[in-house]
Amino acid sequence: MKKIFKGRAVVKGNASAEALVSKGGFNTLASYQHSLMFGDKTGKCSDQNNPDLYKKPIAGTALCMPQTIGSTTGGLVLYCAACMSRQPACLLFSKEIDSLAAAGAILSAVWTDNPMPTVDNLGDEFLEYVQTGDKITVKEDGTVEVER
Fold first, then answer.
1. Which of the chain's termini has less CB crowding within 10 Å, N or C?
2. CB neighbours of 7 closer than 8 A, spacing ≥ 6?
3. Measured between alpha carbons, how far is 102 from 99 in angstroms, rounded to an integer?
4. What region holds the Phosphomevalonate dehydratase small subunit-like domain (predicted)?
C-alpha cells in the first residue's frame, strides 16, 4: 500500500530509504554524540530520552520527525554527520523545519558530497501514518511516498 504526502522541499533531491520514525522531537546533539565522538559508523542514536530511536542506526535512513529540539549546535552536528558519512538519507518533518536543522541540511548539500534531501510541512497525518521500516521515496518537488 502506498500513500503520498506533499511538503516543502527545503533541500531538493531524490532519496529512497527505510523510515526511522520519532514521534517526539529529535535532539540532534544527544542523538549523534556517541557516533561522532567515538566512531560508530552506523550513527546509532545515543539519546536515551528518545525511546523511538535509542540505539537504532540513523545513518542511511529516512529520518521522520515532527521537529528537532535541543542544542544550538544542531545544524553543525548534522553537517559533521554528513562530513563523516553518518547522515540520514533524508530528513522529513511533519512540522516546519527550524533554522538550525535547515542550516545543517543546507550546509551538507553545499559543502559535502553527502546531501540530505529535506522536506518539511508534511503534516500531522504524515507522522501518524509512517512507521519505522516503511519504504520512503523522496522526490525533488517535496513529494514523499510511503510504502508498506
1. N
2. 92, 93, 119, 120, 121, 122, 123, 126, 142, 144
3. 5
4. 40-109
